[in-house]
Input
Amino acid sequence: MATKKYTVTLPEELAEEIRGEVGPGAFSAYVTRAIERQREHDRLGELVERMLKEGGPLTEQEQAAAAKQMRDIERWFEDREQGAQGQAEAA
Output
């Protein structure tokens, strides 16, 4: 992907904190990832808005099903992480 240099204004304290954590060579990559995540967040918000407009608010039953699905997904990631940690400790 082609890149282009831009000038942005950031609070100095925030910028120096990030630079201290990631190092000067990784600052642009960090900012790029942050902007990409924000764009994804914005697009998800637009999708939710459109879906609510077309289908109306979720019923209590739909909300409960979604909450269960989220718990199942979180449990899957936790189990996966614990399995990876166990393998690393065994090695």
Remarks:
- Residues 49 and 74 are 25 Å apart (CA to CA).
- The chain has two domains: 1-57, 58-91.
